[in-house]
Every structure is written in C-alpha cells, then in structure tokens.
Design a protein that fits this description.
419 residues, mainly alpha, Growth Hormone, Chain: A, 74% helix
C-alpha cells in the first residue's frame, strides 16, 4: 500500500514542479514580469473554493480516488491549452495575457483540489491497512518532493525554464497522474443522507470547526502563514536571473541554473518531512508552526543578503531552511486537521485547510507581494535591480517575524504527548 501511495505522491507533485518555480521566469522573459504575482494569486483565488467544494463531493458522492483522477485530467487539458496559446503567440505572448491567465486559472482550479484529495486518499488507505498516518504518511509525502525536484531539474536540463514547453511537460505528467489515480484503493463516501440538514449533505459542516477556539485560531494563523507560501515560488527564479545583468555574477551557477539551485529547497524538504512525526509528538503543533514561521523569516532575509558569488552560501542556507518552513506548516497542519476532525468530514476539513492556506492566504500574499516588488523593482529598466529586490525580501521577512510573535502570544493550544 505504501508503495502504491508513493507512486501517487511522486506524480502529484511532479505535475506542479514542472512549471511552478520556472513560470515566473517565462513571464518575465516575455514582458509580463509585472504580472507574475497575478498568475500565482490566481492559484490562490481558485483555492478559496475549489478544494473545499471537491472535498464535499468526495465526502458525499464520488470516491476520492476517482475525483482525484478526473481533476488531474481536466487540469492537464487546460495546461496543454495554455502551452498551445503561448506557442502560437511566441512573437508577442504578452498580448495573450488575458487568455493565458484564464486558461491557467482553469488549470489550477482543478489541480489545487488534488492536493487535499491525495491527502485524503493516503490517510484512508493507510488506516485501511492499520498504519498510523502520523508515522507512515511523511515517508510517502517525501516522494512527492522527490517528484517535484525531478520535474524541476528536467525543466532546467531540457531548457524549458523560460519556455512555454514547461506547460506541455506539466500536462503530460498530469495525464499519467490521472490514469494512475484510477488504480488506487477506493475511498468510502457517506451514503446515508436521509434526515440530515442540507448543510451536512453539502459538507458545509466542516466550517463548524470554527466553533472550536483552537481550530479557529489555527485556521486564522494558517491564512497569515499561507501569505508566504507562493512568494519565493513566483519571484525567486526571476530574482536570481536579475543578476545576469551584472558581469561579476552573469556566469555563476545560480544564474545559469536557477531551477537547480532552487531545487535544494525541495531536497531539504525530503529530510525535514522525516522529522515531522518526532517533532509533532515531542513539541506539538504550536511549537512546530512557530519553528516554521521563524524559518520563513530566515528564508526571506537570506535572499535579501545573498548574491550568486561570494554570498551564494546565503542562498544555499535559505534553500535548506525552506524544508522546515514548508513542511512544519503544510504537512504538520494537514496531519493536525486529520487528527482533530471526524471521519465523516475529513475530506471537507482538508479542503478547508487548503482553502485557508493556498487559497485565502496565498491570494492575499501574492497580490501584496507583487505590489511590494513593483514598488522596489523596475521591470522596464535595463539596469540590474538587485538593491530593489533586497528591500522587497526584507519587507517579507519583517512580516513573518510579526506573525510569529503574534502566534506565540495568541495560540494557546496545549500539547498532549500521548495524543
């Protein structure tokens, strides 16, 4: 069972890794640098409702593994359409900005629910064979990060970093993921609808979690922390490429192979995932999330201080702390939600968590991040904008430091070691 779920996890994140980090460079190279944030924000906009909606469908009507397959197929279709439009507008892709954004929105509208659905499929399958998700899931999820890294490196090696071909690569992987999802174990749906309120039938009862103080606070800070999730995904690659205008750094590895350098972030994830069972059991969700927040502070600050030359060690360290920043929030948060919710609303609750983080939080974060970057970086200037980029990274670091301080004071959840 674990091997079957490892295959699902690998493909799930390979689809994302094929374009997520390099799309910003493609947009920058085609004259859409000032619109990067809007593409990544669109990913957050659809995550506001699609994961929760699909979670409700999986809980009530369509088994999660079949819905996972259908979502991957539709996402791949629209991603291929995006590549087709970009290919035929190669002379002036910026003129097709509205159509490209629409196709991207439709693609991620069906991809984002797969993140929560794949979690639900994993948890259900593991419990069916009497394996503890807290102990078994991290090692499975680790191979999702491996898939993400492999796709990132493939995009770099194939020369797709600044090309529309990355969208075709992602679409092809999405079709494979769709076919594979149909082979996964069936997940039960709740057939007994008679006598239930319409809110329960539609799955809105997951929102009742907000009645619990600990869960309300958890979801609030999930939004605030989710603000940081897509910032480096959208802007790290264009930032590294901006050093190409400085002769001292133009031929450095980090500039020529930004995707490979950034892939160290995902490599760090593979190690940090294995720490999650130990960290959650020993420290609990509050300390684990606080550690994640402080690592986000370091992540951004090191970007602001570093350079691809003698300061490249700061970039490398930033990539390494990303593993803790991402995993100790996203994966630990998902396991916490799974632990604190009833089986009947599990998929809906996972969708709600995704909506708070990759939806509301990421939408606000990427839109505001674009404004911050536009404030300090002149995309139309032929001159290097290194100083402006540094100011932007320090703004992001300061924000996360404030969130960490507020979280340490407000969130009162008491950890029980036995639980």
């Amino acid at each position: 069972m674990k091997f079957r779920l490892i295959g699902m996890s690998f493909l799930q994140f390979a689809v994302w890794g094929a374009y997520l980090i390099s799309m910003g460079t493609y947009l920058f190279s085609t004259g859409m640098g000032d619109k990067i944030g809007y593409f990544y924000a669109m990913q957050g906009v659809v995550a506001l409702f699609m994961p929760a909606l699909m979670g409700m469908v999986a809980d009530r009507w369509i088994p999660a593994q079949k819905l996972l397959a259908g979502c991957h197929a539709l996402s791949a279709l629209f991603k291929a359409g995006m590549g087709y439009v970009a290919m035929n507008a190669i002379a002036s892709p910026a003129n097709e900005y509205p159509l490209l954004l629409m196709l991207y929105a439709l693609s991620v509208a069906f991809y984002m629910p797969t993140l929560a659905l794949s979690n639900s499929v994993s948890y259900t399958a593991l419990e069916r064979v009497k394996l503890n998700p807290v102990e078994s899931f991290p090692s499975i999820r680790l191979f999702g990060t491996v898939g993400f890294i492999c796709a990132m490196i493939a995009t770099d090696v194939l020369g797709f970093q600044g090309s529309y071909m990355q969208f075709f690569l992602s679409a092809g992987l999405g079709i494979v993921a769709s076919v594979y999802a149909y082979t996964l174990p069936s997940c039960p749906v709740c057939k007994r609808q008679q006598g239930k309120k319409w809110t329960e039938i539609l799955g809105f009862d997951a929102f009742s979690l907000f009645k619990q103080r600990k869960m309300a606070q958890f979801f609030l800070f999930s939004v605030l922390l989710g603000v940081a999730l897509q910032i480096t995904n959208g802007f790290a690659n264009p930032f590294l490429n901006s050093f190409a205008g400085i002769p001292e750094y133009a031929d450095t590895f980090g500039v020529k192979h930004a995707n490979v350098l950034i892939s160290l972030s995902q490599a760090s994830e593979t190690l940090c995932i294995l720490l999650i069972p130990f960290a959650l059991k020993r420290w609990g969700i509050k300390r684990v999330m606080l550690i994640a927040m402080l690592c986000w502070v370091l992540r951004f600050a090191l970007f602001g201080w570093g350079n691809p030359g003698d300061g490249v060690w700061m970039f490398v360290l930033s990539m390494l702390v990303y593993g803790v920043a991402f995993d100790f929030f996203n994966i630990s948060g998902s396991l916490f939600v799974n632990q604190e919710t009833d089986m009947s609303i599990r998929s809906s609750a996972q969708g709600l968590f995704m909506m708070m983080t990759n939806g509301l939080g990421a939408t606000i974060g990427t839109i505001l991040a674009q404004q911050v970057v536009n404030r300090f970086v002149d995309f139309k200037s032929p001159l290097p904008q290194v100083e402006g980029w540094s100011h932007a990274w320090f703004v992001f670091a300061g924000y996360m430091l404030v969130v960490a301080l507020l979280f340490s004071i407000i969130f009162k959840y008491k950890h029980q070691v036995s639980k």
